[in-house]
Amino acid sequence: MSAKRTVPLDKLSDIRPLSELELFKDLPAGRLRVMLARSTVRNFQAGHVFFRPDQSGDSLFLLEQGTVQTFRASGKKKLIIADLKPPAIFGEMGCVGPCLYHCCAQAVQPVRIRTIPGSDLAAILEEYPIVTRRLLDLVSRRFVDVLMDLDASSFRHLIPRLSKLLLERADGNLVPNVTHRELAQRLRVYRESATAALGELKKAGIIEVKRKQIRILDPVRLERAARE
Fold it and tell me: At 111, which helix (H) or strand (E)?
């Protein structure tokens, strides 16, 4: 179950939920308090989907607690766009242009979300051009990040990227709770490609692959592989 809460204007002495965001930085405190008063806060369980591609939007979402993942899906294949941690906004494409979402957004763990009406964002964009420029910068950065990741998936050798990912996920010499499918999603490749790359590292005696975990047998060589 989710709980909905609207905060009275006279109770909003703390404007940090908005003022800490780069998008709304330096806006007058009074204007931020009005936005907070008109916003709503809800808690959602892991797995909740906020929107899907081609759905119409009318709200901006502010992540205050938990983690949200944005991604594109095609059948069983999944292209992860971003793992968002607070404070972060998402759903901006539902508030600009044709107001259509181009990806999915899903709660990875229990989250607290503040929802800002799209009409309020539109008024802010018209009143403060600097916010418009920051929003365009945000959309541009996210678009470029996806392009760069796709470029890396297409042209960079897979084993160095896999080695780097294993080192990042490792707890000591163990990478726990990981599947071939998840690794493939993170690397933006087919599952078969990720399995083949793991097989090469295993054959070289660098890792040991077990069910839902990978043990790093030779961290020095794995670090060397990540740099190649």
Answer: strand 111-117
CA-CA-CA-CA torsion sign (47, 62, 67, 227): positive
- Residue 203 CA to residue 113 CA, distance in Å, equals 46
> 90: which residues sit within 8 A by CB, 6+ positions away?
50, 61, 63, 68, 70, 84, 105
What integer pLDDT is reported at residue 27 of this predicted model? 92
Cα–Cα dist 131/126, whole Å: 9
Q: Is 80 left (phi over 0), alpha (psi -120 to 50) or beta?
A: beta
Helices (H), the chain: 16-19, 29-38, 118-127, 129-155, 158-169, 180-187, 191-203, 219-227
Residues of the chain short of pLDDT 50, as ranges, are 1, 7-12, 155
What number of other Cβ atoms are within 10 A of residue 132's Cβ?
14
What pTM was computed for the model? 0.64
Which helix (H) or strand (E) segment is 117 a member of? strand 111-117
| C-beta of residue 216 within 8 angstroms of C-beta of residue 173 | yes
Is omega for the bond preceding 8 within 30 degrees of 0, making it cis? no
How far apart CA 142 and CA 113 sit, in angstroms, is: 20
Residue 48 identity (one-letter amino acid): H
Give the type of residue at 87.
P
pLDDT given for residue 19 in this prediction: 87
- What's residue 11's pLDDT? 46
Q: CB–CB of 104/44 below 8 Å?
A: no
Q: State the Rg of the chain over Cα.
A: 21
